[in-house]
Amino acid sequence: EKSQEITIGDLLKTCLRMRPSRIIVGEVRSGEAAQLLQAVNVGNDGSLSTIHANTCKDMISRLETMVLMGIRLPIPVIRRQIASGFDLFIHLGRMRDKSRKVMEIAEIEGMDGEEILLNSLFERKEESLVKTGVLRHKDKFRKAGISYEDI
Fold first, then answer.
1. CATH code where residue 49 lies
2. What family, per the record (predicted)?
3. 69, 77, 61: which is closest to 35 by C-alpha?
4. Which of 57, 47, 96, 52 is nearest to 79 (CA)?
5. Range of the structural domain that residue 79 is part of
């Protein structure tokens, strides 16, 4: 018998049929980003995933590229879906001692024309995480049961 491969994209499609409250995807690497983008835009608040990128800003172009691996959509459409589907980007970096630490936390504010706006909330400065901004969409988090202090 030939085994049939089950992809992350297949699992995401099946998961959406089950009407989940949240979706957690360990890592998105390819075209399954299109299904993830769909999932976070249909009321699955609090969903999360990991992707590899160099900065919070780079996460946008990485997501765009991975979505395009799965489905052909105009870049402005992908960007609008990213801006409406995600609330925060959290960038982890590898330190010299091989540990990983939070390097930046950025809020997705929305769009300005065709550009996704990021509001940097915290950035790593040497050994500590320093507050660099103020969360602007507090109501969105409050509705999800998350206080600003939790972030």
1. 3.40.50.300
2. Belongs to the GSP E family.
3. 69
4. 57
5. 8-146
Q: Is residue 2 part of a domain?
A: no
Residue 92 lies in a domain: yes
Please, is 68 exposed, middle or buried when counting C-beta atoms within 10 Å of its C-beta (0-12, 13-18, 19+)? middle
Is pLDDT above 80 for 75? yes
Q: Are strands 100-112 and 24-25 parallel, antiparallel or unpaired?
A: unpaired
Looking at the domain assignment, is residue 139 inside a domain?
Answer: yes
Number of domains present in the structure of the chain: 1
Q: What is the pLDDT of residues 76-129, one digit of tens each?
A: 999 999 999 999 999 999 999 999 999 999 999 999 999 999 999 999 998 899
20 or 58, which is more confident = 58
Give domain status of residue 3, yes or no. Answer: no
Q: Residue 21: left (phi > 0), alpha (psi -120 to 50), or beta? A: alpha
Reduced to 3 states (helix: H, G, I; strand: E, B; else coil), residue 69 is helix
Are the C-beta atoms of 65 and 79 separated by less than 8 Å? no
pTM for this prediction: 0.84
What DSSP character marks residue 39? H
Least Cα distance to 59 among 120, 142, 149 occurs for 120
